Amino acid sequence: GELEIHPFATGHRDHPEIVRIRSNEEIQYAASNWHSDVTWRLEPSMGSILRGVEIPPVGGDTCFADATAAYERLPDDWKERVDGLFAVHDFSKTFGRRLDAEERAEKQKEYPPARHPVIRTHPETGAKAIYTNRPFVSHIEGVDAEESTRILDRLERSIMDPSVQCRIRWAPDTFVMWDNRAVQHYATNDFWPETRHVERVTIVGDRPF
Questions:
Q1: Active-site residue 37, yes or no?
Q2: Which of 37, 66, 90, 179 is catalytic?
Q3: Is 35 a catalytic site residue?
Q4: What's the average model confidence in pLDDT over 152-164?
Q5: Catalytic pick from 6, 89, 185, 196?
Q6: What is the DSSP letter of 11?
Q7: How confident is the model over 37-65, as pLDDT tens digits?
């Protein structure tokens, strides 16, 4: 599929669609929250590919969770509670701190907050999956702030269940590809002060339903 260019990440000079994610003693970066990539887009990426470049001797793994299995493990009353709800995803929750007020306002015009179902349906399989995350979701529509937090916490606990997870130990030139419509991931931040360098591309997707 067509590859995206990330508007807030440093891309390769000759291939801007390749995002370089580098952490070391001076720059600490790790996506240490469960999430799917770029859910703040109106049409989030359908998939991602990550390649290991420079890997620390210990740590720096990436954990993956089956968001469909996480949904299926919810009690029936919780499924009934969250089916049909919508969450608002906003880039500024994570990337806004890098921008001044004027830059943020300009980017908000280009990437306005996106309204996505809390439980999305896979367009090919029809399976339902949890589609909320802490880095990008500002709130759930139609409920007060306390209830929004309670729902987000409960869904995250289901994603955090080890029985729906696998863990990738990186090596140079390890490639992992996943479906952002059905999978969430989490990069462990346990390797400081060693260097961890990976490269990622994301594939253009469509609007969740």
A1: yes
A2: 37
A3: yes
A4: 98
A5: 185
A6: B
A7: 999 999 999 999 999 999 999 999 999 99
Residue 115 appears among annotated catalytic residues: no
Catalytic residue selected from 35, 41, 116, 120: 35
Which of 117, 112, 64 shows the shortest CA–CA distance to 91? Answer: 112
Q: What is the pLDDT of residue 32?
A: 83
Task: Write the CA distances from 94 to 25, 31, 97, 189, integer angstroms.
Answer: 22, 10, 7, 17
Residue 190: active-site member:
no
**pLDDT above 90 for 96:** no
* Band (97; pLDDT cuts 50, 70, 90): confident
* Catalytic choice (104, 122, 154, 200): 200
**pTM of the shown model:** 0.93
- What is the C-alpha to C-alpha distance for residues 29 and 46, in angstroms, rounded to an integer? 23
Amino acid in the structure at residue 123: P
Pairwise CA distance, residues 114 & 90, whole Å:
7
**What's the confidence (pLDDT) of residue 30?**
62
Q: Identity (one letter) of the amino acid at 85? A: L
Measure the CA–CA gap between 22 and 24, rounded to whole angstroms: 7
Q: Are strands 86-89 and 137-140 parallel, antiparallel or unpaired?
A: antiparallel
What is the fold, at CATH topology level, of the domain defined by 19-203?
Double-stranded beta-helix (3.60.130)
Q: Which residue in 187, 194, 143, 151 sits closest to 169, CA to CA?
A: 187
Cis ω before 172 (30° cut-off from 0):
no
Token representation of residue 36:
């799917």
Q: How far apart are CA 181 and CA 23, in angstroms?
A: 27
